[in-house]
Amino acid sequence: MISYTQLSNTELLEKAKYQSQLTFEAQYRLKEEILKRDISLASGQMDFLTETLDVSFEKIKNYKYLSSIGLKLNETGNNDFVIRRSFGGLIMDFLAIVFGMLIVVGSVFMVVSTYLKSGTPEGISAFDLGMAGLFFVLVIVGIQLFFRGLNRLIDHLGFRFEKRGEEFVFRQRKHIRLTKDIFRREDIEINSSANSIELSANGQSIIKVQNPNIKQRFTLKAILERLKENES
Predict the structure, then answer these.
(1) Domain segments of the chain: what residues?
(2) Does the N terminus or the C terminus of the chain have fewer Cβ atoms within 10 A?
(3) Given this model, what pLDDT does residue 85 score?
(4) CA-CA distance, 77 to 162, in Å (whole number)?
């Protein structure tokens, strides 16, 4: 996580001069620290920083960054909505499967070719052994990529989280079988750590993001606020 707590006031002012080159998180932390210390910026700098952040926060409010985790939110009227797998998420799963297969097939071919070379008069050189070891590692990488893509694809077939009035319906696959659970507003919460953030209900994971960026964290929190907004 980006932090400016160790910088002096002068260093913070210097950072503010080049704020347009900073990432969203860096800009957010910079503004947070400036306000905390009550530092006065040059004319227009705070306005520019605030306006830049507001653009991203508007996208967060409209759940635009759900696409970065392969999901999309569609409004269904009367303040109801449904979250499901996005087309881009499905494409990424398919690409992971295809690339995983290609890596495995190509690497196995190269390993076998190196082995068969041992029967030739030239034999196997140290370079050939090194390359065979590299391709063996690539086989493992390809297998992992293939199964991760396949597991994500299967897990999200039929994935659907829907708000229908006071009812929250969650459909997902558990061991291939499509299941349906209904939750109450008070069941839903967010569990957050340094390495992950998870929207869950009654201990059951609905949306989990590993190594999330700050936009993804804010997006899940925005969804939770939307779910809880009518809670008395």
Answers:
(1) 9-60, 89-154
(2) C
(3) 93
(4) 12
pLDDT at 114: 76
Kindly report the length of the chain.
232
The residue written with tokens 């558990």 in the block is 174
| pTM across the whole model | 0.79
Evaluate whether 118 touches 132 at the Cβ level (below 8 Å). no
Stretches in the chain below the pLDDT threshold 50:
232
pLDDT tens for residues 53-76? 999 999 999 999 999 999 999 999
Q: What is the three-state SS of the chain?
A: CCCCCCCCHHHHHHHHHCHHHCCHHHHHHHHHHHHHHCCCCCCCHHHHHHHHHHHHHHHHHCCHHHHHHCEEEEEEECCEEEEEECHHHHHHHHHHHHHHHHHHHHHHHHHHHHHHHHHCCCCCCHHHHHHHHHHHHHHHHHHHHHHHHHHHHHHCCCCEEEEECCEEEEEEEECCEEEEEEECHHHEEEEECCCEEEEEECCEEEEEEECCCHHHHHHHHHHHHHHHCCCC
Which pLDDT value is given to residue 123? 62
The dihedral region occupied by 183, where left means phi > 0, alpha psi between -120 and 50, and beta the remainder, is beta
